[in-house]
């Protein structure tokens, strides 16, 4: 199967794998697919045997045209996603602190204000492309706010962050790779500037938390510290908006695809929390990550060698025997935000953004519907969501 086609709809492969004994090797992923709920949960609970190194393997390596630009920037150091043990705990600490329940609660008024402003911009039009007009801008503005970025820097920073994803996961010509690399380098210099400023003038934001945790003390940041901080700020920026964008897009898509679901939610807004969890279960915003086997072992009846790669599918686990999308079902276990030491530290922030979004839509646009039932999903497993979602009312 074409890789892009697989990314757009991996669920037939997931379903087939769940029916087979053991693990299934999927050529498109170049990995053994871990597809069943209990198996996914077990792998995530055994980080010593299933390492996070190489968790996000690129589909396309930067070529010379891009590399000659990337050397002009910062970064290139491991981020929290691909580390294990003490190193992972060190890199995760500022995220846990910066995305604590208290910090998320303090951000709620900002989220609510931006949600209302974004809806204001199109409410009178009778139609909207939801992803570009609301889902992406809200998630971008919120993570930018928490990182302490100047509002004027947020959208350009997020767009440049997206170029990093393009460079590694989209086919490009040499010239296109070079252009993407230049955008990435501009972002890295921007983030480096924020890091150095926060060293001198700390604030109550995620950037300050990152600087304090990764470079304790008050001395000027060393080049190595700057590289590590920028790598992890860049990762935070990308992860902080892509997954929330996906969750917001998928929730609205599935609620409107079956009109009865949306009408039920409008009649019973107390089901909003259930709708959020059902979206994360049914359409995990991140479909999964790779893990590297650290020693020879037998897992789910399959012999694995040290160095083998498994793809741990949160998306498949969510549909393992749980049925279709239904916000009225009894609460179902899911792994839509990961599990264990690598559980998403920003899950509560994502939930709050979707909660506020659904409350806003129920109150102001209860008559929204899909313009067409045909919706194309983005060709990626990193942020599972519609490419575009055209709504009318």
UniProtKB/TrEMBL annotation:
Keywords: Heme, Iron, Metal-binding, Monooxygenase, Oxidoreductase
One Pfam assignment: p450
A GO MF label: monooxygenase activity
Family as reported in the entry's similarity comment: Belongs to the cytochrome P450 family.
Protein name per its UniProtKB record: Cytochrome P450
